[in-house]
Amino acid sequence: MPDSSPGAAFWEALGWTPEPSQLDQLKALQDQLRSWNSRVNLTRLVEGDDYWINQVFDSLWPLRTELGTPHQSRMAIDVGTGGGFPGLAVAIAMPGTRMTLLDSVGRKTAAVQAMVDALGLRERVSVRTDRIESAGHDRTLRGGFDLAMARAVAAAPVVAEYLVPLLKTEGNALLYRGQWGEADQHQLKRALLPLKSQLSSSQRCQLPAERGVRHLIRVQPVSPCPRQFPRAVGVPSRQPLGD
Question: CATH number for the domain including 64?
């Protein structure tokens, strides 16, 4: 696959085809990553299939349902955004979405903010430097999102504790996972009980070009998340719910 852009089969596999302006933004995002990666170690997945499959495709396939109504007004947050994924890809693909990109590493958020500005997304994409354990108690964020997502951040029970407090009543937490089995699912279900939420679905995807298997776990609130979650900085990872 050339660096310029993937072919029609790629988009057919994804179930979504970008408008020409969106494809231009995805290419511009790749250029921005190249530029910033030389200064800040954001990601090694910048060229060719590494970018188009492991970044763009892997960011978007979990949102196949939402990609059917890309202009619908939504509030979304990407927790632990790192180099901007999946959040920036989602923001490009779903123009109706207002996206918050959260990360605790200032040099990364500074680079991501510069990329947001360069891509012309500043009006609907905000970047925030904070720990999720603190941000989850901020009145401007807590309970405010239709979609809360995290990719490659921590174990599923930990990620659930990060994301669920951010959700609206009808919101969805999207847990991007690699391998996923019955034991993982059982542990997550136990962790969701104190969070007053439930596992609503799990999906499996084989990435193109044999780039591996991915899973998407969707979690929904059953009732408002108790105020003590997320717990203090470091506690969710040291003492995961459900253990």
Answer: 3.40.50.150
Is residue 2 domain-resident?
no
Tens-digit pLDDT profile for residues 11-60: 999 999 999 999 999 999 999 999 998 887 777 778 888 899 999 999 99
CA dist 163 and 158 (Å) reads 9
Helical spans, DSSP H, in 45-169: 48-51, 58-60, 64-67, 87-93, 106-118, 132-135, 156-163
Domain housing 160: 8-238
Query: Per the omega criterion (within 30 degrees of 0), is the bond before 6 cis?
Result: no
pLDDT digits (tens, 9 = 90+) for 9-20: 999 999 999 999
